User: Which sequence fits this backbone?
């Protein structure tokens, strides 16, 4: 992965409804779980100001399987849309760029989507 890439989950750059997280304080915890061999742990989202058009979510994904896997998308019960982005420098400006190919989840490893990468 290029070093200039900062993983946001932005499992999830989550659109408007995550702004509801501002009611719960500075950080909103999510639900952890496991789908097949992929474990979802420590999901959380930063509080967003009222009326914000988007918010960021973060998570650790662990592939307990024998083969590599990919995170191709995500859903959330509190928003209409979840998008996965990376952050890239465009001149002097940091911009969100959609990640259409997904996120690699190597066998036996964890991938943490966190603020600042």
Assistant:
């Amino acid at each position: 992965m290029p070093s200039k890439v900062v993983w946001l989950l932005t499992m999830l750059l989550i659109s408007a409804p995550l702004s509801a997280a501002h009611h719960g304080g500075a950080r909103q915890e999510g639900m952890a779980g496991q789908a097949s061999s992929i474990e979802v742990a420590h999901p959380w989202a930063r509080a967003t100001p009222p009326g914000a058009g988007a918010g960021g979510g973060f998570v650790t994904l662990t592939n307990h399987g024998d083969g590599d896997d990919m995170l191709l998308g995500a859903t959330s019960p509190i928003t209409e849309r979840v998008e996965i982005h990376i952050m890239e420098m465009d001149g002097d400006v940091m911009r969100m760029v959609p990640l259409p190919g997904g996120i690699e989840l190597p066998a036996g490893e964890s991938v943490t989507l966190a603020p600042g990468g």
User: Anything to note?
Assistant: The radius of gyration is 14 Å. The chain has no helices and ten strands. Residues 90 and 96 are 10 Å apart (CA to CA). Confidence is low (pLDDT under 50) at residues 1-28.
